[in-house]
Amino acid sequence: MNEENRIASIGWGSLVWDARDLPLLSEWRKDGPSLPVEFARESGGRRITLVICKDTPRVQTLWAIADAVDVATARQQLGVREHQKASPEWIETEIGCWDKRSGRSHGGEAETIVAWAEAKGLAGAVWTNLPCGFSAVALSPTDIEVVRIS
Q1: Domain count, the chain
Q2: What is the pLDDT of residue 24?
Q3: In what order do the strands lie in the sheet with 104-106?
Q4: Antiparallel, parallel or unpaired: β 48-52 and 37-42
Q5: Range of the domain at 109
Q6: Is 2 helix (H, G, I), strand (E, B) or coil?
Q7: How many angstroms separate the Cα of 123 from the Cα of each of 3, 5, 55, 119?
Q8: Entry pTM
Q9: What element of type H or E holds 15?
Q10: 115 φ, ψ to 5°?
Q11: What is the pLDDT of residue 45?
Q12: In a structure prediction context, what are the per-residue pLDDT tens digits for the chain, which is 150 residues long?
């Protein structure tokens, strides 16, 4: 792949250790953008997951080269990995992106990601853009599944 055509898939949490069918051309690299990622979302099955969340400490994320010909394809692939029944509308909202060719960007921390991606000489980037939030139902300690990452 031509260096100018590389598209980054930026990851943290389960995406890194369980990419499933997400097509990637490289291993996960440890020099992704520093983002405010925190356990701040209750996802399906009442799992507590990592998401970009303002006003939390920044952490080093990872990135891999997406096996995609353009940002739209990489975005679609990440959307399906994150939600198997992802509609185009869901992907438009919940998958962040930056496309150097069009100059378009969307999603939390887009400015940080664009600056990082440009410094890496990338043609684009995609990332999960799920909102922070918990259900109104109180969780008991037995409701929370702890996943240890080594």
Answers
A1: 1
A2: 98
A3: 62-65, 7-11, 124-128, 95-99, 104-106
A4: antiparallel
A5: 3-132
A6: coil
A7: 8, 5, 29, 11
A8: 0.88
A9: helix 14-17
A10: -60, -45
A11: 80
A12: 565 689 999 999 999 999 999 999 999 999 999 999 999 999 888 889 999 999 999 999 999 999 999 999 999 999 999 998 999 999 999 999 999 999 999 999 999 999 999 999 999 999 999 999 987 655 555 555 555 554
Which residues lie across from 38 on neighbouring strands?
A: 51
3-state secondary structure of 69: coil
According to the model, what pLDDT value does residue 137 have? 58
The token pair that represents 90 in the structure block: 């869901």
DSSP 8-state code for residue 103: T
| 22 SS3 class | coil
Distance from chain centroid for Cα 5: 19
Q: Which two tokens stand for residue 19?
A: 């990419």
Distance CA 40, CA 133 (A): 6
Please check whether residue 127 is in contact with residue 107, taking contact to mean a CB–CB distance below 8 angstroms.
Answer: yes
Query: What type of residue sits at position 100?
Result: K
Residue 142 belongs to a domain: no
Residue closest to 58 by CA, chosen among 35, 33, 39, 76: 35
